[in-house]
Amino acid sequence: MAAHVRKLVCYTDEPGQGGYGHNGSDLLTWHRAFLREFETAMTTVMGKPMAIPYWDWTDPESLKTVFAEDFMGPEGDPDQNDHVMSGPFRHGKWRLNVKGFESTNPGRFDYLVRAIGSIEGMALPVGEEVQQALARPQYDAAPWGVTADNDVSFRSFVDGMLNASGLACDGGAVTMVGTTATLLHGTVHMWVGGTTREGHPGSLADTLTSPNDPVFWLHHANTDRIAETWWAANRYEYLPRSGGPRGNNLNDRLWPYTSTSGDVVARPPSSAMPMTCWSTSTRARRSFRRRTGSSSAAAHPYMPTNRAFPADGGIAAALDDASQNKGLESVRRSSLQRQCARRR
Ligand SMILES: [Cu+2]
User: Which of 89, 159, 205, 341 has the least C-beta neighbours within 10 A?
Assistant: First the structure.
C-alpha cells in the first residue's frame, strides 16, 4: 500500500510530472512487480507458495464467483453508503488505513466501498476490446504518458484512460486532467469502485486507495495476463528505451523493488516474475535471460535525488496511514487456492 501511494508522488521540480508506476510506460511492469511483492508477502503469511488468481472480467459468468460471499464479497449496500456489508472484507472487519485525499475523495472511508456499476453508461470490457489491445503494434508510443496514441500504444490502450489531456499535482499526488472515458484496466477500476450517491469514488475507483479492495489484485493479475500475452507475441518489447519520463525508460529501476543479486534489471518484463497462477513459460524465461543476461527481474531502489515529499499533509499523511496497514491476515487461503486451481 505504501509503495503504491509513494509511486503517485509528484516531482517537486516538475509539477504535474512523476507518479511513475501509473499513467505511463511502466504501468504494466511496475504493477507486475507489485503483484509479485504481494504474492511473496502472502507466501510468508501462509507459510507456503501462494499465487494471485486472475479475474477475467470479460466473462460475465465470472461475477458470480468473484463477488461471492466466500470470496471477494458482494457489492456495497446502497442503503449503507455503498459499504460492503457482508463477506470476508465487510464493514467492521476490513478496516482501511489508507483513505486518500480530502480533495479527490472526501468520503475518506474507513471501510470498503463498492458502488458497482453505478457510473452511467459504463460496462465491463468485452473480449473484443482485449483483441483490439493485443493488435496494437508497439508497447508504447511517444510522448509515453496519458496522451500516447491509443491506436499505436498497447500500454495506453490497456491502461484505458481516454481523452486525458495531462497530469496535475493534487495534495502532492499525481492526478489526471480531462479524463472522460476509460477502456479495459481503467474501466474495471471505475466499474467496481463506482461513484457513491454523495458523489465520492468507491475504493477501487480512486488510484490512491485502490489496493484497499482485494479485487485490485485479481484485476491486476488479469491485466498482467493480457500484458504477458502481448509481450509473448512481441518479443518482450519495452518502450521507451531512453528519452522518456524518468523512471519509465528501459533501464530505469523499478523503485522500490530491490535485488538480492545486485542486478540492475527493471525491464523488459519477463516471466522471471511470473504470475504463478497462469503462466511461466520456459520460452519466455529464456527470452528474458537472452535479452538481459539475467534471470532476475528485480531491481535496485530507484528514487530521483531531487525528488522530495511536499511538506504539507497530503501524501505524507497517506504514507503514514499506509505504514499502519496490517493487511494480509484476512486473505482467504482456501478461496484463493480454489480459484487458482480452477484457472489452471
Ligand atoms: Cu490499476
Answer: 341
Spacing, Cα 223 to ligand 1 middle (Å): 8
* Ligand 1 centroid to residue 23 C-alpha, Å: 10
Q: Rounded to the nearest whole angstrom, what is the distance from the C-alpha of residue 31 to the centroid of ligand 1?
A: 8
Whether 254 has a pLDDT exceeding 70, the answer reads no
What value does the mean pLDDT take over residues 222-243? 86
Cβ(53)–Cβ(336) below 8 Å: yes
Alpha-carbon Rg for the chain in angstroms = 19
Q: Which tens digits make up the pLDDT trace of 280-335?
A: 333 433 433 343 333 332 221 222 222 223 333 344 444 444 333 332 222 323 33
How many angstroms separate the alpha carbon of residue 58 from the centre of ligand 1?
A: 16
Q: Measured in angstroms, how far is the CA atom of residue 5 from the centroid of ligand 1?
A: 12
The model carries a pTM of 0.75
Please give the tally of structural domains in the chain.
Answer: 1
Q: Are 156 and 150 in contact (CB under 8 A)?
A: yes
Residue with cell 486451481: 341
Q: In the prediction, which pLDDT does 167 show?
A: 67
Closest by CA position to 6, among listed 314, 264, 243: 314
Contact criterion met (CB below 8 Å) for 103 and 173: no
Instruction: Report the CATH number at residue 237.
Output: 1.10.1280.10
ω into residue 256 within 30 of 0, thus cis? Answer: yes
- Using a pLDDT cut of 70, give the percent of the chain over it: 61
Domain that holds residue 106: 2-343
Task: Tell me if 99 sits within 8 A of 109, measured CB to CB.
Answer: yes
